[in-house]
Amino acid sequence: MANFDFVDDKKSFNVSIRGKSYPVVKAGKGVPCLLICLGTPSLRTISKNFTRMFEVYSSDMYWVDSGALDHPESVTIDTIIGDIKALTDALELKKYVIFAHSAYGIIALEFAKKYPNAATGIIMIGTPLNSNQHVAEMNNAIFQHDADEKRKLIDAERRSRIEKEDLTKLNASERWLREYVYRDAPRYWHIPDFDCTELWSGINLDRLLVRLFSDILPRTNVLNGLEDINEPIFLAAGMSDYDCCPWVWKDVKNLPKNFTISIFNKSGHWPHYEEPELFDARVKQWIETIYNN
Fold first, then answer.
1. What contacts 287, CB < 8 A, 6 or more positions away?
2. Does residue 280 share a domain with residue 196?
3. Contact at 8 Å (CB) between 105 and 244?
4. Residue of 81, 84, 107, 165 with fewest CB within 10 Å of its CB?
5. What is the pLDDT of residues 271-289, one digit of tens each?
């Protein structure tokens, strides 16, 4: 696959949220589109064509060590949602779309519940039903049942190797990336041994990101009140995404009335990178439907 970081003509500036300054990157022209939470990996994986449709805003805020909070233990899901709203207000965004990769889609849905119609739509990519132990066990069972033997062999070999490594020598960010990039590749990518090291180059994660997945998100049940969301939602589901298995959203009984599930057969967790032309074409059709109505 191609290298990362396709977008050029980027502009950087700072915004202030609750008295703390954070850098924001802006690129493209079109419908305003906010990449929420850890913005850099999403910015590195969208295409140039995507920025011909959208005016993209990306910030890592306090999810990287350069933006670390003094008291990260006080952050809750409501804090995160409120700070996203504060960011959109600081950027003076109107009629904007939220772009939420992976479990950040859960945060986007919670945002829509708290601030109905603040965004005009949500693009979710590879979002799991929830981010907790029960869903992880369900997704693992799907992997063991559905994945091909080559993928399962690579997965087993890598998990065995990681178990033998002394990861205590790594900090929280280094350990998280070692597991994500190497151990979990067969569950994240359509090419099961794909090396995404470059994607994470220069990103030093704050310990708050680890807490997001170990404590904050497991306490959130996004299925509660899901049917009350009015905003149009586009979910990109890669069929090799065995970490999140986003296609299982089709079985949810209380989906919002305007919830589109788009299947990508040659993608894993990153279909906007793995099948960019198809992804862009489907998103273009979706966004035109929203703004032409």
1. 31, 53, 97, 121
2. no
3. no
4. 165
5. 999 999 999 999 999 999 9
